[in-house]
Amino acid sequence: xxxxxxxxxxxxxxxxxxxxxxxxxxxxxxxxxxxxxxxxxxxxxxxxxxxxxxxxxxxxxxxxxxxxxxxxxxxxxxxxxxxxxxxxxxxxxxxxxxxxxxxxxxxxxxxxxxxxxxxxxxxxxxxxxxxxxxxxxxxxxxxxxxxxxxxxx
Length: 153
Ligand SMILES: [Zn+2]
Description:
Blueprint: H1 2-10, H2 13-37, H3 44-77, H4 82-91, H5 96-104, E1 110-111, E2 118-119, H6 143-152
Antiparallel strand pairs: 1-2
Helix pairs in contact: 2-3, 3-4, 4-5
Bound molecules: zinc ion.
Keywords: Membrane, Transmembrane, Transmembrane helix
Protein name: Zinc ribbon domain-containing protein
């Protein structure tokens, strides 16, 4: 449950909304299909069969949608190409794209102390405003050491 909450915290709210709308629509379409194909005497049986099948299918596709939303938001906070990774996750068969994403993903990117934009961990300076970034491992090192490291790159 804790893991699920962390997962849903990362997935954008709009994607969550669309996923639930999608489940509702799939269920309704299933009910309508069941109603149309039913004999006038026995409506309940095809109604529950079609409705149930559509609900399961809708939930499976909604989970897939949520996972794509997760990849999008997670790639973004890791300063990776989010659109590209969503396409990789969506188009590779048998969830290989998701596997590839989790193997290849970078550590979570830091935010600039000055302007708040995402700065990847190997960057010494913010590419948006140019402020020097303090590194997690070398916060105690003198500033000149950081500057010479930055210049040598
Ligand atoms: Zn900045």
